[in-house]
Write a structure and sequence with these properties.
The protein has 251 residues and is of the alpha/beta class. The protein contains eleven helices and five strands; from the N terminus they run αβαβαβαβαβαααααα.
């Protein structure tokens, strides 16, 4: 008799684990993210250069380009881009006004001004109109593309000297608010900065504690702050009152 066939032993070789597909799929999805960009620029040569930069860059697609604000205002709501590069000095409607009208229609679209203007008025008007970024036209290609990625990710890209002017404008606005304080409010703020308690302020100035509270409320309103610490921090950067030593009186 033939011996019964033997069952081959189970292989002891370890099976190579199948790599998780979730990480691979996520990375592939991230690589496939394409940012659609539209351009509003009246100079045809500049518009072609910008479109070429964007179209050839990995992760971007030039969705459309327009020579006037009016044409952009007509077409963009029908085919919205995720990022719009907007010139300011356009024939007819300005780029700032175009952003002002488009932003309510396209709240998810990010507008970046690309202009030759670097004065505070144009910067302020553009940002209050709804722009999320402000670049100058001499911005190099690599920086421009980085700014587009930044604004798409939730940032607010600005050319460095533009950012400095925004900070300076904010500081000037704060200084102007401090200048609006009355002489008595300045006295109260001076004593606050020196560490006086409300009752000590009242005793020093010969007024009641409720009156001190009234002055402090007015100071907060004029300085656009919500706490004693914020008011004092702003005071320490302003020439409010005299330059006496800012310490509490000795007992």
């Amino acid at each position: 008799m033939k011996p019964p066939p033997t069952t081959p032993p189970a292989s002891s070789k370890l099976t190579t684990p199948t790599p998780s597909t979730s990480g691979v799929q996520r990375r592939a999805k991230e690589r496939l993210v394409i940012i659609p960009v539209s351009i509003v620029e009246d100079d045809a040569a500049a518009r072609r250069i910008l479109a070429g930069w964007i179209q050839r860059a990995e992760g971007f697609r030039c969705l459309s380009d327009f020579g006037t604000a009016e044409s952009a205002l007509l077409q963009l709501p029908r085919e919205p881009a995720e990022v719009v590069l907007m010139d300011i000095n356009l024939p007819g409607m300005s780029g700032i006004e175009c952003v002002r009208q488009l932003k309510p229609l396209l709240p998810k679209t990010q507008f970046v001004m690309l202009t030759v203007y670097e004065d505070a008025d144009h910067i302020y008007n553009a940002l209050t109109a709804g722009a999320s970024g402000y670049l100058l036209k001499q911005t190099p290609r690599s920086e421009l593309l980085a700014a587009l990625r930044d604004v798409h990710a939730g940032g607010s890209p600005m050319t460095s000297n533009i950012a400095r002017k925004v900070v300076q404008s904010f500081q000037l606005a704060k200084a102007s608010a401090a200048e609006d304080l009355s002489p008595r409010e300045r006295e109260v703020l001076e004593l606050l900065a020196r560490g006086y308690l409300y009752k000590e302020i009242a005793d020093t100035l010969g007024i009641s504690v409720p009156t001190v509270n009234t002055y402090i409320r007015r100071i907060y309103e004029k300085l656009h702050v919500r706490s004693r610490g914020q008011a004092v921090a702003q005071y320490n950067h302003q020439p409010v009152g005299d330059e006496r030593a800012r310490s509490r009186p000795q007992a």
